[in-house]
């Protein structure tokens, strides 16, 4: 069972291109459908041969030969593609053979307009539409349609002569053949539509995932996983607009890793990168669902806290500062890593986003100048 599943995945799995999956379905499914049509025709021909008292092959020989040829042709085109890997050639070979030789041949030899073969003409046209690109598809569709019209005209004009040559059975004995062909083509079409729906659903889901990844790449810093500066500015702008409408508080905290250059100089840039990533993780774990963590530049990060007062932001900043001081970001670092921070709350005194950020940056500068490893805010300039 597992081997069968792996084989099916190798022939129809999503790792293959859409045209290749359709071709595998058309060639192998066509062979299976033709086997069923051959069985149905064989039963009908056998009943007719028995009724008129002639050997089976006298009545059904030509039709059965074309039926078996059709089965072999499907399998042959499948083998040609998987040997040569020339998909377009195999597709064109399959379509030409089916629509111009095999299907019309079966139409003439197993019952003409009274058989179920005209239903297969529809499948031939459907495969043309699905497996060719626009320009060759339109050309082949037109040529095939004209050809099938000529086949119908020929059948109407010379039907009796064809019946005499191939001993085609009367219409009233072909109900089984028609019924089997109807169900065979119906099931094949249903499966094909289902395959199309699943393929479309998968491609849509995959496209959405890729779009989401692209969106994240456009707004995320690749090293830290935090948002980038461009997204940060847009987010603060939207927060300011909301503040103007609702008067809800909006606070930001600007953090800077203390003596980060010395970390790079003493332990190397790879360790420095570990510190950047580790500090970002601390920030992300410490914020609320609607807070935003962004890398502002270098070792500077900004935490945006919509709805938080300056006092609340200060308390959160203190918690983060204390957590960073006790966190080991790398086994190679033999001393604590600390951060300093500046807190600012938005007010109408700020005319731009840059002025708002500059207020937090000024408090951060004060924290750096007064000993580092501390948080400064408007309400307490030297308090941790």
Topology, please?
Layout: H1 2-12, H2 18-52, H3 56-84, H4 87-109, H5 117-131, H6 134-166, H7 175-219, H8 229-246, E1 250-257, H9 260-267, H10 269-286, E2 292-297, E3 300-306, H11 310-325, E4 339-345, H12 353-369, E5 375-376
Helix pairs in contact: 2-3, 2-4, 2-7, 3-4, 4-5, 4-6, 5-6, 5-7, 9-10, 10-11
How does this structure look, described?
- The protein has 384 residues and is an alpha+beta fold.
- The protein is built from twelve helices and five strands.
- The chain has helices at residues 2-12, 18-52, 56-84, 87-109, 117-131, 134-166, 175-219, 229-246, 260-267, 269-286, 310-325, 353-369, and strands at 250-257, 292-297, 300-306, 339-345, 375-376.
- The chain has a five-stranded mixed beta sheet, with helices on both faces.
- Strand 2 and strand 3 form a beta hairpin.
- The longest helix is centred in the middle third of the chain and has 45 residues, at 175-219.
- It is rod-shaped, with a radius of gyration of 37 Å.
- It starts with a helix and ends in an 8-residue tail after the last strand.
- The model has no long low-confidence stretch (mean pLDDT 84).
């Amino acid at each position: 069972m597992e081997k069968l599943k792996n084989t099916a995945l190798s022939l129809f799995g999503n790792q293959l291109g859409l045209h290749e999956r359709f071709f595998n379905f058309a060639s192998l499914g066509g062979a299976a459908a033709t086997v069923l049509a051959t069985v149905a025709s064989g039963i009908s021909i056998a009943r007719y041969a028995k009724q008129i008292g002639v050997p089976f092959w006298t009545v059904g020989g030509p039709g059965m030969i074309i039926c078996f040829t059709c089965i072999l042709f499907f399998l042959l085109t499948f083998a040609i593609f998987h040997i040569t890997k020339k998909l377009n050639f195999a597709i064109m070979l399959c379509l030409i053979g089916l629509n111009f030789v095999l299907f019309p041949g079966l139409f003439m030899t197993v019952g003409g307009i009274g058989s179920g073969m005209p239903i297969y003409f529809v499948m031939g046209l459907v495969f043309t539409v699905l497996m060719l690109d626009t320009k060759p598809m339109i050309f082949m569709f037109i040529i095939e349609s004209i050809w099938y019209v000529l086949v119908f005209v020929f059948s109407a004009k010379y039907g009796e002569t064809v019946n005499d040559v191939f001993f085609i059975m009367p219409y009233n004995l072909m109900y089984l053949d028609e019924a089997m062909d109807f169900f065979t083509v119906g099931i094949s079409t249903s499966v094909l539509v289902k395959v199309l729906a699943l393929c479309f659903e998968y491609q849509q889901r995959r496209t959405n995932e890729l779009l989401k990844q692209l969106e994240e790449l456009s707004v995320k810093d690749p090293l830290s996983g935090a948002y980038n500066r461009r997204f940060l500015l847009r987010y603060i702008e939207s927060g300011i607009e909301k503040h103007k409408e609702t008067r809800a508080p909006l606070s930001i905290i600007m953090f800077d890793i203390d003596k980060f250059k010395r970390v790079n100089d003493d332990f190397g840039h790879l360790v420095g990168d570990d510190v950047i990533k580790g500090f970002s993780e601390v920030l992300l774990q410490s914020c609320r669902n609607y807070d935003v963590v962004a890398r502002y530049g270098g070792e500077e990060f900004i935490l945006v806290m919509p709805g938080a007062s300056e006092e609340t932001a200060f308390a959160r900043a203190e918690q983060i500062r204390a957590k960073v001081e006790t966190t080991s970001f790398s086994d190679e670092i033999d001393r604590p890593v600390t951060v300093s921070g500046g807190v600012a709350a938005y007010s109408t005194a700020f005319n731009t986003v840059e002025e708002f950020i500059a207020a937090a940056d000024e408090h951060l500068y004060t924290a750096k100048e007064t000993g580092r490893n501390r948080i400064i805010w408007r309400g307490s300039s030297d308090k941790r």
